[in-house]
Amino acid sequence: MEQRIVECVPNFSEGRDREVIRRITSAIERSGGVRLLDVDPGEATNRTVVTFVGSPEAVVEAAFQGVKQAAELIDMRKHKGAHPRMGATDVLPLIPISGITLEECAALSRDLAKRIAEELRIPTYCYEAAAFKPERKNLAVCRAGEYEALPEKLSHADSAPDFGARPYDDGVARTGATTVGARDFLIAVNFNLNTTSTRRANAIAFDVREKGRPVREGNPITGKIVKDAAGNPVMQPGTLRATKAIGWFIEEYGIAQVSMNITDIAVTPLHVAFDEVCRKADARGVRVTGTEIVGLVPKRALVEAGKYFLRKQHRSTGIAEEEIVRMAVKSMGLDDLKPFVPQEKVIEYLLDAESGGKRLVDMTCKAFAAETASESPAPGGGSIAAYMGALGAALGTMVANLSSHKAGWDDRWEEFSDWADRGQILLSELLHLVDEDTAAFNRIMAVFAMPKSTDEEKAARSEALQAATLYATQVPLRTMKAASKVFDIVEAMAAEGNPNSVSDAGVGALAARSAVLGACLNVKINAAGLKDRAAADALVAEAEALAAEARRREKEVLALVESKIQ
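-> structure tokens emitted (566 positions)
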């Protein structure tokens, strides 16, 4: 199960008073569940850009606390700075990193904007993906006239905020208005060139950036710029949408670069930008020698890139995530100028390292076995069942990957890659369930620590126990459903895969059957503790049906394997 992670990048209208900045960022961190990644104050702009990440719920709460603190500490009547601004918290975007869509972030943004308006009495506009009006997708439209225009804007319905519309008063004068929205992740990336020419780097940048370059009469370099009826330059768009780019020379490296911001990686993924810059550079006699990512990057950008380059080689994409990321690093030369360490550059890996939690799936085989054999009741049969299912999925995936590059089967690589991809999805889900089953057991144990002195406490304890028991019944049922899907893979690999690995497919079927039957026992023993007998009986009936189907599928696969071995 993919971890749900959201990034938030609020811009606060204070870049000079370090104590004010510290108190705002402290409020964000105190809310809990988020990691502060960057605090970037600007003296001239009198503005600080803060970056933090976490679960959607934690990020929304931290953002609210940051806005609240900024409203208490920043008086917009005294603010002066070079950057456009409209409020103490000027702009507040939510950005999907993993496990959550842009649309979901837009819904969260609207709820947050409403809460800010209602609880803090700060007028709020919604922009980008959260905009209620098409024109308000553009931040500049929401912020038109800046802080000084608020008295006029709040007095007209067409320019009033989306939430918190009211006459301009001392409260608004102090806090200003805030713009809340959702946008995709912005990647700042530099493409290294084998030239020192800034002019050539700029030419490549103009070839690709969305804005493009001015159209000129006659000579494309020295000709007169063509203008439209309004006197504005006519532009020839570049080839990459949602990108901004320039060329520059970096003294430190002794090379020129194309410096690019990819403002929407759903429109122009990182690997697409890389290939296009390479193409345009080659047309001008220049080579891209590598890529430099500035700041952090979401995992999906590298995974998509790694899979893209694997497909270009007609190789299976159903391999370990670490290998896919390594393919991306090598293909785009991310380690050209200095070592690229995914654990330090990929947001999800950073959060995993910070969590510090002990996960069963991170243990060695020996340590996992020793932990299971200890006096503690968890991990137990449920976690072991999930792990057996994961091993079954791993074996099916292995056969698919071996088949994808078997000599003489080159034209079938994509067929087996698809099976390997399906296997990796199941492998990931079942590994997650290894720890989830133990977490479900611990949730039950936690209930017994709840107070039970009063009737109210006893009732709350009883209700919590039933909820925990239901969850502990549902988790092994999820294991059964996931492990049942392993049969499709191992059966296909026994029938069509590399014949030298047919026995591996058979062992995969045995592991999948053990996972399903083992998890079924956990469903039954936990369902026995449910007071809602109708719900319990339904869960058990579903589990028994899955177990019967697993027995049948195992026999079919083993019969097929035996026929291939003889």
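The longest helix spans residues 413-447.
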